[in-house]
Design a protein that fits this description.
The protein is built from ten helices and 16 strands. The protein is α/β, with parallel strands linked by helices. β12, α6 and β13 form a beta-alpha-beta unit. α3 crosses α4. The longest helix has 20 residues. The radius of gyration is 20 Å and the shape is globular. It starts with a strand and ends with a strand.
Length: about 325
């Protein structure tokens, strides 16, 4: 099979298209012929080595976390899937490899593809939708009538977060550029702030939840718009001790992470705000619940561009440019 590989951590190196043997599924795995994959900021951060401390990968590495495709083989103990099933998945950490023609996946991380969307649309969903599900439902327990601020509403995570928050009955504010106002309004945003000309800190007040995906300055401003008892969930850092414990880091790394987030946690505590860092986990059962929301037209994918497989490096460059509205997808078959 053909696959795009990374030979070392680098911000500038391009992925190389090479030949690999087609993988064989183990007893609890399915072999999926990948039709489409999507590119995430996480792929770029892994490529540059930004997460090498907590996700130490071996090389050569096939990047890519999101796939949609067709099951071609199943392991002897697979119970929930059969050959020919159309599926989608967020590949689990340390077993990624979406920028390829085939991948093996433990069935616990796989779900049937929504029937009402294309392979390209299905590939755009898993990582961002699971991130939003785990933030709004698992961590925040978002309730009807609560106010939530979703940063970067026209991005991959933002477009899904607005839709899920509205489905849960929340009042949603978001930031984007003026050219994307129509998009986020269509998704359900109640308050839209032009981040180029307006400061959300001067507009929003007494919010119950912030989903932070931007830099430290934005995070600090976000603390100030929350009511006492509110929650700030960050998917862009800094990581907190609970995260370090959750993924089983050693004492030294736990100490480093504690120091990285100390200032943020101290400020949050002073304002009686619950701060937490979310590093999304692959989860097939949650993805199946998301599939039902998609089939009910409650959540709709937002795709900016689709690149052919041969232009995988161009797709990564486009995501890194920060211009994408929604998701960027690679069409493999």
């Amino acid at each position: 099979m053909k696959a795009f590989t990374l030979q070392r951590y680098s911000k500038t190196d391009k992925l190389k298209l090479v030949e690999f043997p087609e993988p064989s599924p183990q007893e609890n795995e399915v072999l999926v012929e990948i039709h489409s994959a999507s590119v995430n900021q996480l792929d770029s951060k892994l490529k540059s080595g930004e997460f090498k401390m907590i996700l130490p990968y071996k090389f050569p590495l096939i990047l890519g976390h999101d796939i949609a495709g067709i099951v071609k083989k199943i392991g002897s103990k697979v119970q929930n899937f059969k050959v020919g099933d159309e599926v989608f998945s967020r590949l689990p950490d340390f077993h990624i490899g979406a920028f390829a023609e085939y991948v093996t996946i433990n069935e616990n991380f796989v779900a049937l593809k929504p029937k009402n969307i294309s392979m390209e649309e299905a590939a755009s969903i898993p990582l961002v939708a699971l991130t939003v599900w785990q933030a709004l439902i698992e961590k925040a327990n978002l309730k009807k009538g609560q106010k939530v601020f979703v940063q970067a509403g026209s991005g991959g995570v933002g477009t899904i977060a607005i839709q899920l928050a509205k489905h849960l009955g929340a009042f949603v504010a978001t930031t984007t550029s003026e050219k994307n106002f129509d998009l986020v309004k269509r998704l359900g945003a109640d308050v839209i702030i032009d981040y180029k000309t307006q400061d959300f800190e001067n507009i929003l007040t007494s919010y119950d939840l912030v989903l932070n995906s931007q830099n430290q300055e934005t995070l600090e401003k976000s603390l100030r718009i929350l009511k006492a008892g509110g929650k700030l969930i960050s998917i862009s850092g800094p990581p907190d001790p609970a995260f370090a414990k959750e993924i089983g880091l050693n004492f030294f790394l736990k100490l480093i992470i504690s120091l990285l987030s100390r200032k943020t946690r101290k400020e949050a505590k002073k304002q009686n705000i619950d701060y937490s860092f979310l590093f999304m986990q692959a989860n097939g059962k949650q993805l199946s619940k998301i599939r039902k929301l998609i089939e009910a037209d409650i959540i709709k994918p937002t795709i900016d561009k689709i690149f052919p497989f041969e232009q995988t490096n161009d797709a990564i460059n486009y995501v890194e440019s920060g211009q994408a509205k929604g998701k960027v997808v690679i069409k493999i078959k």
